Amino acid sequence: MSPDDVMIVVISGLLATSCALLGSFLVLRRQALLPDAVSHAVLPGIVLIFLLTGERASLATVLGATAFGVACVAGFDWLRRTGVVASDAALALVFPALFSLGILLISRFASGAHIDLDSAIFGDVTFAPLRTIELAGLDVPRSLVITGAATLGTVLLVVLLWRPLKASTFDPDFAELGGLRGKLVSQVLLVAVAGLAVVAFDSVGAILVITFFVVPAATARLLVRRVGTMLVAAVAVGWVSAFGGQRAAVTFDTSIPGTIGLTAGALFLLALLFAPRKGLLTKRLAARPQPRPR
Amino acid sequence: MIGWLLDALPLSYPDAVVVVGTAVVGFVAGALGPLAVLRQRSMFGDAMSHGTLAGVAVAFLVTGAKVPEVLLLGAAVSAALAAFAMIALERTGRLRPDAAIGVVLSVSLTLGIVLLTHIGASGNSQQAGLNGYLLGQAAGLVERDIVLALALGAVALTVVLVGFRLLRSATFDPGFTSVAGVPSWAVDAVATGLLALAVVLGVRTVGAILMVALLVAPVVAARQLTKRLSTLVPLSGALGAACGAVGGVVSGRAELPAGPVIVLLATVVAVLSVTFAPRRGIVAKARRRRARVAG
């Protein structure tokens, strides 16, 4: 493996780590589709910053996108808490509206500028090693710094809020009454998801981010029963996908995020079929009809 | 067949085509939406719309040209496959709907991207704009599209009418349906096939990604106003058609793309209904609560 290959695996793996940690909680809370919604909802933020500053991929763009990502999760949370609209319908109401707003802004004010609707700030991990910044005299890939910082932040968040996060996931009422500030913690989690998603879109691309949020966590959910082990398993699945996918992409000469995503999908399928206790085939193998004593 | 309708509208011919087309799509989506929303599958449309990309790519790979009907057929097949995959995952009982949708969505989108990368590398000059199929172009509608939409919509609505009792019991009490002798997977499959049809109908007008809103928003609005499924289906269809028609006119006048205008309109209607509906609205609920505290 060339240094660039290693760099791609490391960046993807770091990203997988942070996404899997937050994604596991999203899967347990039945909010696994939030990152996908955020990926569409950030569009108006990107366009507004472009109209104001003329820049398409600056720090301001990330901030603008984050603002609308947070607006998306806030709107979702408000609608959900009214109790009138189910959680999934609330999400399906909020993000298309924001996405529409973005498309209208583009067609009204920025039709001349070239903004790819679905990929304005969306980077590609393939080129991540090439975009470097200088850090302490060394040329370091920007994405490595960003994903590294994001991963560190996520790990800290999960460790610091471990008890309230767990409690509010499984028993929101207890978390609220037991003085663990369940509602506040839930909102912190949502904002963290929006922020991490935007930062990650910028450096490795939206598709990979959405995949990393959902698939490793869903795979881990099939494999283990405890939250702690689920987080570890999800992170492991993420790293295996990053490594396997990168190798496969080099072998077949195709899109790196694509093969990483497909590897994660394949791991999920394996877990679905052969997971201990819960696997579809495991069960069939174990439940082979026993000869009945007469 | 529909020439007289287009002539009768006080609009120029191209505008009339757009308005009728968007109204038809709005009605079909609104009427089929309850199949998704009432079963906590609102985001089904989202995964199906992302799934269309792989189908479009495969159709293009097979034919080597951009024939709209063939690409749409590919989109329909892959949307249906994605939907069946979601139902199958859900029925294993190992995953909740949101995780099942998320897994299918990411894997099918990834597959689409890999295929598009492959097409892009093949150097076929016609491949440009394939991914544009995710975002519709109502202005490009022609009469033939409306006829197609009307025909497919009529098929879908007939199925809903004929199987209404089954769909109703499958929606509220899946156990009863299977006891009554109809396997619940069959009802699931039909309902899902109809939703896939609706998503593909929307591909040409509002775009696949925005179709999820058109399936959900009218239903949420209508659900606030009625408790009965037999009222909900036509009411939400009518709301969808109204949003489609008005959005079509407004977008034509303001020279904006129709899809986003229609979606924003439908969202506003839904939020208004959620807030101000007579009995289930937030305001009405708050007032009742206050009355109870005071009394």
TrEMBL record, chain A:
GO cellular component terms attached to this protein's record: ATP-binding cassette (ABC) transporter complex
Compartments (UniProt record): Cell membrane
Gene3D superfamilies documented for this protein: ABC transporter involved in vitamin B12 uptake, BtuC
Membrane-topology descriptor: Multi-pass membrane protein
The keyword Transmembrane belongs to this UniProt entry's keyword annotation: yes
Keyword annotations from UniProtKB, A to Z: Cell membrane, Membrane, Transmembrane, Transmembrane helix, Transport
Primary location group: membrane
Transmembrane regions listed in the UniProt entry: 6-28, 59-79, 91-110, 144-163, 231-250, 256-275
Gene Ontology terms describing biological process: response to zinc ion; transmembrane transport
Hydrolase is among the record's keywords: no
Assigned protein family: Belongs to the ABC-3 integral membrane protein family.
Protein name: Metal ABC transporter permease
Organism in which the protein naturally occurs: Prauserella cavernicola
From TrEMBL, chain B:
UniProt key word Transmembrane: yes
The UniProt record lists the keyword Acetylation: no
Gene Ontology terms: biological process: response to zinc ion; transmembrane transport
GO cellular component: ATP-binding cassette (ABC) transporter complex
Keywords: Cell membrane, Membrane, Transmembrane, Transmembrane helix, Transport
Similarity comment text for this entry: Belongs to the ABC-3 integral membrane protein family.
Name used for this protein in its record: Metal ABC transporter permease
